[in-house]
């Protein structure tokens, strides 16, 4: 299986886990759970959200790699290639500007 398909499935699974944590957080806040439990669930929700964002940027980098010339984003091939480069560059810029502080704490929070 191609790496982009695998990464796409990972992105979808992470988003589903994020939505599950979001709904669980809303349920706990509705039930007036203790603040420690709410804080723990909120941290997990944030980790899933940031993981989703990072994997999405990596997926954009892989999909819109400028060395692949067969991607059609516009009728004009030259404009299509320029759009491809812009999306690729924006994904790299977003990855370089991303704050990785919560993701470094992932093993101790999720376990």
Explain what this protein looks like in three dimensions.
The protein is mainly α and about 110 residues long. The chain has helices at about 5-30, 35-65, 75-95, 100-105, 105-110. The protein is elongated and about 55 Å long. The model has no long low-confidence stretch (mean pLDDT about 85).
Indicate the low-confidence ranges by residue numbers.
none
Distance between the termini: 30 Å
**Total number of beta strands:** 0
User: Rounded to an integer, what's the Rg over CA atoms?
Assistant: 18 Å
Strand content: under 5%
Helix content: over 70%
Write the layout of secondary structure elements.
Elements: H1 3-30, H2 35-63, H3 77-97, H4 101-104, H5 106-110
Helix pairs in contact: 1-2, 2-3
Q: Which terms summarize this structure?
A:
single chain; 111 residues; mainly alpha; 0% strand; elongated
Produce a short descriptive summary:
This protein is 78% helix and 0% strand.
């Amino acid at each position: 299986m191609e790496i982009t398909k695998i990464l796409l499935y990972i992105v979808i699974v992470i988003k589903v886990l994020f939505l599950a944590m979001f709904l669980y957080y809303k349920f706990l806040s509705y039930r007036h759970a203790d603040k420690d439990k709410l804080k723990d669930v909120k941290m997990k929700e944030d980790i899933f959200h940031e993981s989703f964002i990072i994997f999405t940027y990596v997926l954009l980098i892989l999909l819109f790699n400028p060395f692949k010339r067969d991607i059609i984003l516009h009728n004009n091939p030259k404009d299509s290639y320029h759009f491809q480069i812009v999306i690729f560059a924006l994904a790299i810029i977003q990855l370089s500007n991303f704050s990785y502080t919560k993701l470094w704490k992932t093993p101790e929070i999720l376990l």
